[in-house]
C-alpha cells in the first residue's frame, strides 16, 4: 500500500436517506395534525401571521411553528413577509368546500392510526394478516359500529378517488360501451367520473348494502341518479349484473393473486364479446424495484387487507390467462395506471 493511498480519504456515503426515514416518521404526522387542527380552512379566507394562528387555535408558538414550517416545506403552505397562506394544492385538496377534497381519507388515517403503527405493521408482516379493526374487518362489528365505520370508510374512499376518477375516463375511448359495472365500487366516484365524461354511458355500483346506501348519497349530490344505480351483492358469490364494461379500482390490491384470478375469470365469463375490463390502481414497475409509492401502498395493504401492489405485467398476465386480448397498460392520474383488455 502506497503512502498516497493511505492518505486518500474513503468516500463517505450520504446519510440523508437514513434521516429521511427517521424524520419522515415525525414530519408526515405534522400534516395530519395541521388538518386535524383545521389550519387549512383557517387560512382559506386570508393569510395569517404565526401570532394570529396561535391565537385562533389556542396553541403556543413553538408547536405551531413546527407544524406550519413542515406544511410549508411539504408544499401545502406558503410563507411570505411573515404571513402563512394556502398553496394551490392545499386549496384544491384540503378545503372541504372543494369537490376534490382529500381530507376524509386523512381523517380515516388519523382515526385508524393504530393500523400503521410500527407494532401493528410488524404484526401484519409476521402473521401475514390484516390488522385493521382488530383484524376482524368492518362486517364483524355490531350493526351500529358497522354503519359508522362503513360511512367513514366509504367517505374516505371517495376522498382519494374522485380526482383520478374524473381523469382516467379521458384516456380510453368508451363511446361504444353502454353499461359500466363498477365492481366493489364503494362511493361510486369512478362511476361518477365515467358517466360525466361519456354521456351515453350508464353505470352500476356493485357493492355491499351499507356501501350502496352511502354511494347513493354521493351520486345524488352530482344529480346522476338517472344514469348511475347501485346494486347490492357480493362479487365472490353473486351473479354479476349485465354490463359490457367491468371496472375495478384498487380492488385487486385488496386480494392475493388467486382471488384476483377468480375475479378476472368471473369478469371474462360475464362480459359479452367485445366487452372490456379495466383495472385501476398503483402499480409496481415490471422489475418490481419501485416506485416508492407503490411499495408503500403495498405496506398500506399489508395493514388493511389480504392484498398487495402488482406490476402491470403481472396484471396483464392475469388478463391474458383469463382469455382477454388487446391488453394495454397506460399511465393515468398521479401514481395510478390502467390495465385493460377486451374479450374476443
From TrEMBL:
The keyword Ligase is annotated on this UniProt entry: no
Natural source organism: Nitrosospira multiformis
UniProt xrefs under Pfam families: Dimerisation, Methyltransf_2
UniProt protein name: Methyltransferase family protein
UniProt cross-references to Gene3D superfamilies, sorted A to Z: Vaccinia Virus protein VP39 (3.40.50.150), Winged helix-like DNA-binding domain superfamily/Winged helix DNA-binding domain (1.10.10.10)
Claim: Transferase is one of the keywords in the record: yes
Top-rank taxon: Bacteria
Residue ranges constituting the O-methyltransferase C-terminal domain according to the UniProt record: 119-325
O-methyltransferase dimerisation domain boundaries: 19-94
Key words of the record: Methyltransferase, S-adenosyl-L-methionine, Transferase
A GO molecular-function descriptor: O-methyltransferase activity
Biological processes, Gene Ontology terms: methylation
